[in-house]
């Protein structure tokens, strides 16, 4: 699998490139936005994943992420020196699949990369039964079961659950959820309504809605359904 790596710090870039290649990934390395855009425009389809530093000498990783997502839905992970919530949420809202804050351990980065790639591979395969903890979703029948017993969900609750089920392991911001519910349902859902629907889903799916283990809140970022 080939990864597009964009990192302006040449020492960090060399170390990352070596580690990725040791783990059987092939890499194309760029040090700025201009050269990365040239590579992307010439053949984005050759890459399985993009790894973008946020701060670059002639622009930002956000700009590159937006450029990539306009062409293809391939995964993007941000490398950022800042763990500021605003910056992280901005990246997730632009369609990034994950982020990792510098300094980081290379094993953690490799784990994040493989997790994101697994998620995309699963999404590319037709799957009529999705399992999340003790919850099973039969997408052919449009039915949800908890420990074998059918759970009665409204149409919008079911759609919201499907969004989570198709992004297992990924942090979804409230804005991302609102946009996707709007697109799928064609109904108006505001921020307060989203809170109500997540609360109802937890009440129907969680063993202890006050301490959720399925739909988890990621403080300051959004929500995440674990594998």
Automatic annotation (TrEMBL):
Superkingdom, taxonomy of origin: Bacteria
4-aspartylphosphate PTM sites in chain numbering: 53
Compartment(s) of residence: Cytoplasm
Pfam families for this protein: Response_reg (PF00072), Trans_reg_C (PF00486)
InterPro entries from the UniProt entry: CheY-like_superfamily, OmpR/PhoB-type_DNA-bd, Sig_transdc_resp-reg_C-effctor, Sig_transdc_resp-reg_receiver, WalR-like, WH-like_DNA-bd_sf
Chief subcellular location: cytoplasm
Domain Response regulatory: 2-117
Ranges annotated as DNA-binding: 127-227
Keyword Secreted recorded: no
UniProt keyword annotations, A-Z: Cytoplasm, DNA-binding, Phosphoprotein, Transcription, Transcription regulation, Two-component regulatory system
Domain OmpR/PhoB-type as annotated: residue spans: 127-227
Protein name according to UniProt: Response regulator transcription factor
């Amino acid at each position: 699998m080939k990864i597009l790596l964009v990192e302006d710090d040449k020492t960090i870039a060399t170390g990352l490139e070596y580690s990725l290649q040791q783990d059987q990934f092939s890499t194309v390395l760029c040090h700025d936005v201009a050269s990365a855009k040239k590579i992307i425009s010439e053949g984005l389809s050759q890459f399985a994943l993009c790894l973008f530093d946020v701060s670059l000498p002639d622009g930002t990783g956000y700009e590159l992420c937006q450029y990539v997502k306009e062409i293809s839905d391939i995964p993007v992970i941000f490398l950022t020196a800042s763990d500021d919530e605003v910056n992280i949420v901005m990246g997730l809202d632009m369609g990034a699949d994950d982020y990792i804050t510098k300094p980081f351990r290379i094993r953690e980065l490799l784990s994040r990369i493989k997790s994101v790639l697994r998620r995309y591979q699963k999404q590319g395969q037709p799957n009529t039964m999705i399992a999340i903890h003790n919850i099973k979703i039969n997408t052919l029948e449009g039915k949800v079961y908890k420990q074998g017993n059918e759970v009665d969900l409204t149409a919008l609750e079911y759609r919201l659950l499907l969004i989570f089920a198709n992004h297992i392991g990924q942090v979804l911001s409230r804005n991302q959820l609102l946009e996707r519910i709007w697109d799928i349902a064609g109904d108006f859902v505001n921020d307060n309504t989203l809170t109500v629907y997540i609360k109802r889903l937890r009440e129907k799916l969680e063993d202890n809605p006050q301490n959720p283990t399925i739909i988890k809140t990621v403080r300051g970022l959004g929500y995440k359904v674990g594998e």
